[in-house]
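Subject: complex prediction, re-run

Hi both,

The earlier run crashed halfway through, so I resubmitted it with identical inputs.
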Amino acid sequence: MSSTSEVRPIATRKYTKIADDLRRQIIDGRLAPGSRFPTLAEIQETFEVAEGTAHQATRVLLNEGLIETKPGAQTRVRERPEVIRLVRSWYLEPPSGSPWHADMAAQGRVGSMEAHSEAENALPAIAERLAIATGDPVERTTYTYMADDKPTFLATSWEPLGLTGGAKSKSQGPEGGPVGGYGIVRRLRDMGVSVTHAVEEIVPRTLTGPEAQKLGLRAGIAIVVIERTYFTEDDLPVETADMIITPPYRPRFEIPVRAEEEDELDDMGA
Amino acid sequence: MSSTSEVRPIATRKYTKIADDLRRQIIDGRLAPGSRFPTLAEIQETFEVAEGTAHQATRVLLNEGLIETKPGAQTRVRERPEVIRLVRSWYLEPPSGSPWHADMAAQGRVGSMEAHSEAENALPAIAERLAIATGDPVERTTYTYMADDKPTFLATSWEPLGLTGGAKSKSQGPEGGPVGGYGIVRRLRDMGVSVTHAVEEIVPRTLTGPEAQKLGLRAGIAIVVIERTYFTEDDLPVETADMIITPPYRPRFEIPVRAEEEDELDDMGA
DNA sequence: TCGAATTTGTGCGTATGTATC
DNA sequence: GGATACATACGCACAAATTCG
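This time it finished cleanly. Structure:
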């Protein structure tokens, strides 16, 4: 309120300047992908700083995903990462199979899933997403997806208990789950409820310690969480889920470009 | 490849345990949004650690977006952020106006843009996205989007110079740009090239120092970059762009659910 | 209104742990 | 086993912003 100046982290901090300098070298290619990155001792010497400061600078680049560090080993400039794309088409998955299993099969890997459900009272954030009141009963299900028995994805879904009445646990099979496809769409359709659209919101954050432990990754790396909510035709939310997508996986949306002529715009709400 | 054990950050580090403990308090609501977060001195005392360790723990939660720190002021648990949604429908923007300006108008803000183009030789990553050879000439354009004269979005686009031959600079107006809508779609259509689909890949990373400076945000916070590429009907890339989306903005994809019956699947290429 | 106390952030130097080579 | 290198932790000093008497 008081002043115009917000957080103004002037870029004159030593570790910031060091990080900027080294980042530029990486981007310009003077430090090639896969090549050896200066050691802390070298940074200490060339920039005339303490070890802690050098370490702080490398931590910045580590969090940006530009370098790879391993205790004991030399730090290296990260190779252009092998990305594995999770295609999220504009229409939901064709009935033939879930993209998860298809992707896994295409890579010659074996996909499996573990799930665990329990009832709880909706926290504010979840209540808002499901358009219910805080504290209303919901069924929370946590999923762990494995590729070749290695935990690869984490997901959590919430369903209002008032609506589905615990139908989930019954028909829940390994095909299901938030990543695996559209189990809930089919399930609700069998109950006479028509799911017509989904909304996926992309929220960035860093990986927490517990998550990193489960996935065998480092805490603090940047990831995306896809918050997906399914709606009926009268815009009633029937399920919402958090899907944690970590490198090397990467969501990919394929979007048709509508020709300007076609003006029969079938609005789908909002 | 030598061993099965990858990076195994055993969660017994002090700062990790402190962060886990405090995170749980926030998630469980024992530390309510907006409430005062323990000071470094208090953390130091309750967990019996040095100041630096306490600071490192808060840094973790800061990067996760759970708390807000300001030098001099008390740290607070972050309010559930007021998100501003950037709707990315499954069809691209109707001609009536770009979503950027629509969003800004809806919030009573004034949107404007600055752009700057120059020719360069394609780096490997860009070359791959444009399906050209490394070093081929491209036109790079950097955009800064303002909301109420405050820099809000950054974007960079690349076009193969061989294709559009610098047509961009001529018809480039304030309506255009990667965020603003589909200037290039119309532009190429006028040249007889039909853009039929786009691909958007979601890449998480943290905000770099220079970017943070421009946007008046803190370096190190998690953001998403939308890498968007436009294709012609024969899958020829005609433009690719990096759109840097920072909090409180959040991409939102609205996706229709196809009924299982409709099996006339019009594949749009893989 | 001004100055002092508080609080976060940066930086130094050192010691130690632990994984890699 | 020893040398190297990254990671954690401590303790201290100071800077900068905020808060409050």
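Chain A touches chain B through 78 residues (CB under 8 Å).

- K.
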